[in-house]
């Protein structure tokens, strides 16, 4: 990802430019807004984020069953999941952008209702979609249980999709 | 309110409606949901958690939440109030013995702050059963005329035959749409 190495240096550069070239305060906030979106993109593509998701699924997948009806506990886990992601994004943004204030950013978001298109927003929306959340767990569980069988019979099947690869890295030895 | 919640709320301007279906156990909530969705209704068992269906109807995206109504489950209802546009209260019109209980549960829901803006549709269900009370009597038994806080309507229906389900759903969508979507 080309944008992923925007560090503090670049931020200072930009602020410098703003002071000198852009006199209106609205364009300063434009730049800051776009930068924040860029950071969010990087944050959720990062391995840390994937690890956090994997750990969360590993901890909770046992509760899920591939049935149409949902258990009440899914709602608790879902709440925990969205809180975790929100906190993760906020912490990482604060680390990357000194002085970042989430409430300020969400206020800006709301004034730009019509500009929010693009993949990043689609991704963020799936995080707060219960049905996607449930599917993610059902898939994880199916894959997990498939693998358990593989171990017990002494075969290891090499995962082929990217998602499988990510989870196989965090694979712990079977605890039987 | 966090980032994800805010984004979700902003996105929902696009003709998306959240309907919450509640009522005592055995009222016929899950049957209504499945019937409306064109699914088989012969093998429905009591709901111990909740069901969600997303239905397309008249260009609206309806997210319908159906939560189990057994007494021990009712304390969970509150976890599903948030962002509800319409409350569908389903009544077993043949269950005269529990109408009092039914009335109390409904009226206490209407005091909930998070349901304050919701439109109320009461389905007087199971009208196909010979002993069922007509919707006019359900209206009196539930003291619906006392309700000043919400737009409401009562509609006699049968989840088994499908009678009047569409009528009720169309009314609740129209009412919600006239409140929410005319602002653009
Ligand atoms: N005759 C008749 N039976 C109905 C009707 N609607 C539902 N039933 C029956 O009533 C019973 C209960 O229906 P459900 O849909 O499971 O009721 P519910 O409100 O979802 O109940 P809980 O999940 O326990 O809250 C089932 O046996 C249905 O077949 C109806 O309109 N007419
Ligand atoms: Mg049910």
Automatic annotation (TrEMBL), chain A:
BART domain ranges (all copies): 33-146
Gene name of this polypeptide: LOC100367381
Protein's name according to its UniProt entry: ADP-ribosylation factor-like protein 2-binding protein
Pfam families per UniProt: ARL2_Bind_BART
Family to which the UniProt record says this protein belongs: Belongs to the ARL2BP family.
Species of origin: Saccoglossus kowalevskii
Function: Plays a role as an effector of the ADP-ribosylation factor-like protein 2, ARL2.
Keyword presence, Nucleus: yes
Keywords for the protein's UniProt record, in alphabetical order: Cell projection, Cilium, Cytoplasm, Cytoskeleton, Mitochondrion, Nucleus
Subcellular location(s) of the protein: Cytoplasm, Cytoskeleton, Cilium basal body; Cytoplasm, Cytoskeleton, Microtubule organizing center, Centrosome; Cytoplasm; Nucleus
From TrEMBL, chain B:
Keywords attached to this entry: GTP-binding, Lipoprotein, Myristate, Nucleotide-binding
InterPro entries linked: Arl2 (IPR045873), ARL2/3 (IPR044612), P-loop_NTPase (IPR027417), Small_GTP-bd (IPR005225), Small_GTPase_ARF/SAR (IPR006689)
Gene3D superfamilies, alphabetized: P-loop containing nucleotide triphosphate hydrolases
One Pfam family linked to the record: Arf
Highest taxon listed in the record's lineage: Eukaryota
NCBIfam families: small_GTP (TIGR00231)
Family per similarity comment: Belongs to the small GTPase superfamily. Arf family.
Protein name: ADP-ribosylation factor-like protein 2
Annotated organism of origin: Saccoglossus kowalevskii (Acorn worm)
């Amino acid at each position: 990802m080309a944008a992923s190495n925007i560090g503090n240096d670049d931020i200072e550069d930009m602020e410098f430019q703003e002071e000198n070239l852009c006199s209106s305060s609205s364009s300063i906030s434009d730049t800051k807004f776009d930068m924040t979106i860029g950071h969010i993109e990087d944050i959720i593509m990062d391995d840390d984020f994937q690890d956090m998701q994997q750990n969360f699924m590993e901890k909770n997948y046992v509760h899920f069953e591939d049935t149409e009806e949902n258990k009440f506990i899914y709602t608790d886990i879902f709440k925990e999941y969205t809180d975790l992601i929100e906190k993760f994004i906020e912490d990482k943004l604060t680390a990357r952008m000194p002085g970042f204030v989430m409430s300020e950013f969400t206020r800006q978001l709301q004034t730009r209702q019509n500009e929010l298109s693009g993949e990043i927003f689609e991704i963020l929306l799936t995080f707060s979609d219960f049905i996607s959340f449930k599917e993610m767990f059902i898939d994880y569980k199916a894959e997990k249980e498939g693998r358990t069988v593989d171990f017990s019979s002494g075969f290891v099947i090499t995962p082929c999709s990217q998602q499988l690869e990510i989870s196989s890295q965090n694979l712990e030895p079977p605890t039987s | 309110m966090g980032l994800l919640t805010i984004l979700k709320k902003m996105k929902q301007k696009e003709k998306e409606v959240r309907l919450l279906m509640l009522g005592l156990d055995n009222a016929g909530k899950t049957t209504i949901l499945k019937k409306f969705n064109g699914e088989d209704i012969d093998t429905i068992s009591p709901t111990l958690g909740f069901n969600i269906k997303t239905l397309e109807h008249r260009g609206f995206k309806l997210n319908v939440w159906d939560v189990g109504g057994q007494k021990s489950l009712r304390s969970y209802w509150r976890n599903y109030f948030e962002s509800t546009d319409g409350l569908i209260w389903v009544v077993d019109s043949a269950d005269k013995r529990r109408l009092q209980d039914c009335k109390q549960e409904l009226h206490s829901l209407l005091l909930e702050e998070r349901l304050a803006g919701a439109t109320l549709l009461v389905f007087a269900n199971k009208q196909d059963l010979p002993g069922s009370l007509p919707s006019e009597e359900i209206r009196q038994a539930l003291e619906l005329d006392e309700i000043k806080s919400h737009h409401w309507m009562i509609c006699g229906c049968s989840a088994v035959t499908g009678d009047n389900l569409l009528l009720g759903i169309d009314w609740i969508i129209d009412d919600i749409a006239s409140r929410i979507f005319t602002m653009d």
